[in-house]
UniProtKB/TrEMBL annotation, chain A:
It comes from Kribbella kalugense. This is ABC-2 type transport system ATP-binding protein. GO terms for biological process: response to antibiotic. GO terms for molecular function: ATP binding; ATP hydrolysis activity. The keyword Nucleotide-binding applies.
From TrEMBL, chain B:
Keywords: Membrane, Transmembrane, Transmembrane helix. It comes from Kribbella kalugense. The lineage of its organism: Bacteria, Bacillati, Actinomycetota, Actinomycetes, Propionibacteriales. The chain crosses the membrane at residues 20-37, 75-98, 119-141, 235-257, 291-310, 340-361, 390-414, 426-451, 463-481, 501-521. This is ABC-2 type transport system permease protein.
Length: 298, 528
């Protein structure tokens, strides 16, 4: 089965600034793919290109085996989109907006809609101008989840939702992914959400993908922190590649080591002689902080 | 005065945001007004010619009664529509900086800083009232520079600024009533319209010594007009207008402390839980129907008004060659009444082009607010979406013009006992404006399609055409200038002869330009 989304070398500039600078992104059919990056990294621009709202200056993009620009209308029957900041027609009720978007996409499943309204605890009779941000977000989520589509493009979809609703969102995404085999591209800043839902993630920065893979693959990219009490002097430790921030304090050493360099470092430690050893795996937060930092990837 | 904290900062913000549009309308209205002094002084040099020109029923409805025969009074009378425009602009400015700010949530952002409860309203009113004051001073100086007496020039400044002040206060009250800026605008502009109609009805009745002259004393527009600049200079009416403004501002403040930020006094009703909108066209209908209804009713009233007075107009100008000449420049046709009706149709067509541009620019509103994004993320193509809006921006003016034609035909036909004959003539005359209206709509489509950020420039079309229409009706104008306006190339109906060539050419231009715009829309990015 071809990938649900694949882009190669996408470039998009707005005047002087490059929003995308050679972005490669592959989302396999049936997976929930996390799309992460600091603010302004180009996540929304990418999604807008995938929706055919914006045309890339260079590079290719395929969505559901179609061209997102020229086949936009046909593709949109098969996908649903939730923006991070939903604006609605102020004088339409939430229910009207949900039905409108659903029908224009090709049909609304009434039962499904009622069930989702119930789960998200949304009153569809209120006029859009009376909704809070979280409730406007729910309108877009219900409209997207109630339609029978293969692909969901979710751009920071839970911004403004309370923790309970966030939980409902996770359940629904898990259901549509596990039971119905739908593909989801989830742009998000909420790491626990990404960890709970995503099979694979792509991290972008300054318009390029800096890492892509499963979360456990990505964990290998980062550093493990080690504290050890040594028998002898810490000879040669500083010269080993992959060792960072080495500090010695009264026979105790602390340092961070690149996870893929951990073996030679441990050999060196046991040669010196170890009295005690504490090793901490990298947390997700550390992983992202490191990848988000401008100087992290040269 | 803690409730006013931050007002000066907000005033600077408003001035920064309106730094272009505010000076433009002030200078534009002052320049138009001052230019009329020489134009109309040359055209109607004698008191006799002025009285004759001014005493037809159509003009009395439009501009009111002539208060005296001096040049200043005559020009003030002929400019009778300008205070209404000032009132309209003042309403829009106040609501734009109060209710719109609340509806978009920006007020909340600012309100959380050191900004007092009344600061937003105070800042919006200060700027609007101040702009009107500047306009009044410039106008007084400009009029005085045309050798009109200083006292009268100050009085006309007070008339204009007073109307602006009063309706700015009306806008401030309306902004408290509804949570929707659109509804607030509707309430305030409806009040302005009612004031105008009361003034027109009262003046018409007064002129014919009818029993309804008192109606005009219900209209704030008439209060300001009755100051009679360059004549009696009744300053006390200026005080009355000022007092009414103060009362309305007090009401607005009273209301604003009795509601929450973001909410109105009129409650929001619940809507249906299930919608039956299912297509871009249905959505466009929902978004355009209010506008369409308002313009259609307005055009029907306009048609009734002009159709009703047309017979009287013909009776009054039968024996004045100067007026005949003026009217023939404006409409140019055989019969005098026909040329009056043709001039009216031109005016109606020009107004219809403003509606066409407004309806076309709804697309830009949808785009810049981000609401187009979820729609185009469904199986709706850009062309389908644009076409569903264009149904209303192209056929909406047709419906409104039809309403004007029908109303005018019925009213004029009833007056001369020939409904069967006049109805089709005037419907035809009204619909004959459409090619020119569509050209201006097509230009708006093209600008939106290629340069969305410049969409507001589309308003230049109707404005330039209205200017050309106004100027060339008053004075002889070089033909290349008149030829810029597509309305110049329309047949003068009713009464004139129709040649297909120019109509087909205008339609062809509209189609080519409009399609080019749609291609531009399909090829460009949608700004985030």
């Amino acid at each position: 089965m071809p990938a649900a989304i694949s882009t190669e070398g996408l470039v998009k500039s707005f005047g002087q600034t490059y929003a995308l600078d050679g972005l490669d992104l592959t989302v396999e059919s049936g997976e929930v793919h996390g799309f992460l990056g600091p603010n302004g990294a180009g996540k929304t621009t990418t999604i807008r290109i995938l929706l055919g709202m914006t045309r890339a200056d260079e590079g290719t993009a395929r969505v559901l085996d179609g061209d997102p620009w020229s086949d936009a209308t046909d593709l949109h029957r098969r996908l649903a989109y939730v923006p991070g900041d939903v604006t609605l027609w102020p004088n339409l009720s939430g229910g009207e907006a949900i039905d409108l978007l659903g029908r224009m996409r090709g049909g609304v499943d009434k039962k499904r809609k009622a069930e989702l309204l119930e789960r998200f605890d949304l009153d569809p009779r209120k006029k859009a101008r009376a909704y809070s941000k979280g409730n406007r977000q729910k309108v877009a989520l219900v409209a997207a989840f109630a339609s029978d589509v293969e692909l969901l493009l979710l751009d920071e979809p839970t911004s403004g939702l309370d923790p309970l609703m966030e939980e409902v969102f996770r359940e629904v995404v898990q259901e549509i992914s596990d039971r119905e085999g739908r593909t989801v591209l989830l742009s998000s800043h909420i790491l626990s959400e990404v960890e709970a839902l995503c099979d694979r993630v792509t991290i972008i920065r300054s318009g390029r993908a800096v890492e892509s893979g499963t979360l456990s693959e990505l964990r290998h990219l980062t550093r493990t922190s080690i504290q050890a009490e040594l028998v002898g002097p810490m000879n040669g430790l500083a010269q080993l590649s992959g060792v960072h921030d080495l500090r010695e304090d009264d026979g105790r050493v602390r340092f961070d080591v690149d996870t893929d360099q951990i073996n030679p470092v441990l050999r060196q430690l046991t040669e010196i002689g170890v009295r005690s050893l504490v090793s901490q795996p990298p947390s997700l937060e550390e992983l992202f902080l490191r990848l988000y930092e401008p100087e992290a990837v040269k | 005065m803690k409730t006013l904290a931050g007002t000066s900062g907000l005033i600077r913000l408003i001035l920064r945001r309106d730094r272009i549009v505010l000076p433009i309308w002030i200078v534009f209205l002052v320049a138009i007004s001052v230019s009329y002094v020489k134009q109309y002084g040359d055209l109607f040099p004698t008191p006799d010619s002025r009285v004759k020109y001014a005493s037809n029923a159509g003009f009395i409805t439009l501009y009111g009664e002539l208060s005296g025969t001096s040049l200043g009074e005559f020009v003030t009378w002929r400019l009778g529509f300008v205070p209404v425009m000032i009132g309209l602009i003042s309403i829009l400015t106040v609501i734009r900086h109060t209710r719109v700010e609340e509806e978009t949530g920006r007020r909340e952002l600012l309100g959380a800083t050191v900004v007092g409860r009344h600061a937003q309203l105070a800042a919006a009113l200060t700027v609007t009232l101040g702009a009107n004051l500047v306009l009044a001073i410039l106008l007084a100086l400009g009029m005085h520079s045309q050798n009109l007496p200083l006292s009268g020039s100050i009085a006309i400044g007070i008339e204009y600024a007073g109307t602006g002040w009063l309706f700015a206060a009306v806008g401030a009250v309306a902004a408290q009533l509804s949570a929707s800026a659109g509804t607030a605008r509707g309430i305030a502009i409806g009040t302005l319209g009612a004031a105008y109609i009361l003034r027109a009805a009262g003046d018409t009745s007064a002129h014919t010594h009818g029993p309804l002259a008192w109606l005009r004393w219900l209209s704030p527009i008439a209060w300001a007009q009755q100051i009679h600049p360059y004549g009696q200079n009744r300053w006390w009416l200026g005080v009355l207008v000022l007092a009414a403004t103060v009362v309305l501002v007090a009401v607005a403040i009273y209301l604003s402390v009795r509601r929450d930020v973001g909410s109105g006094l009129l409650p929001d009703k619940l809507g249906p839980a299930d919608g039956n909108l299912g297509s871009p066209l249905a959505l466009a209908w929902r978004l355009h129907r209010g506008l369409l209804a308002a313009w259609t009713v307005g055009f029907a009233l306009l048609g009734l008004l002009f159709g009703g007075v047309a017979k009287g107009v013909g009776d009054m100008m039968r024996d004045d060659p100067g007026i005949q000449e003026a009217f023939q420049r404006m409409g140019g046709a055989s019969g005098l009444i026909d040329s009056f009706l043709a001039g009216v149709m031109l005016l109606v067509g020009l107004i219809a082009s403003a509606y066409a541009v407004q309806a076309t620019l709804r697309m830009r509103v949808e785009e810049s607010s981000g609401r187009v994004e979820p729609v185009l993320a469904t199986a709706t193509s850009r062309w389908q979406w644009a076409a569903s809006h264009l149904v209303f921006s192209l056929l909406g003016p047709a419906v409104a013009l039809l309403a004007a034609g029908v109303a005018e035909g019925l009213a004029y036909g009833a007056a001369i006992g020939d409904v069967g004959g006049q109805l089709p003539r005037l419907i035809g005359a009204a619909l004959a404006q459409l090619p020119a209206v569509w050209v201006l709509a097509a230009i708006a489509i093209a600008i939106f399609g290629f340069f969305p950020q410049l969409s507001m420039v589309s308003w230049a079309g109707p404005v330039i055409c209205i200017l050309i229409g106004l100027v060339s009706a008053g004075v002889a104008t070089a033909s290349w200038i008149r030829d810029i306006s597509p309305f110049t190339h329309l047949p003068s109906l009713p009464g004139g002869s129709v040649t297909a060539g120019p109509l087909i050419a205008l339609l062809a231009i509209a189609i080519v330009v409009g399609f080019a715009g749609l291609i531009g829309l399909r090829r460009r990015d949608l700004p985030a």
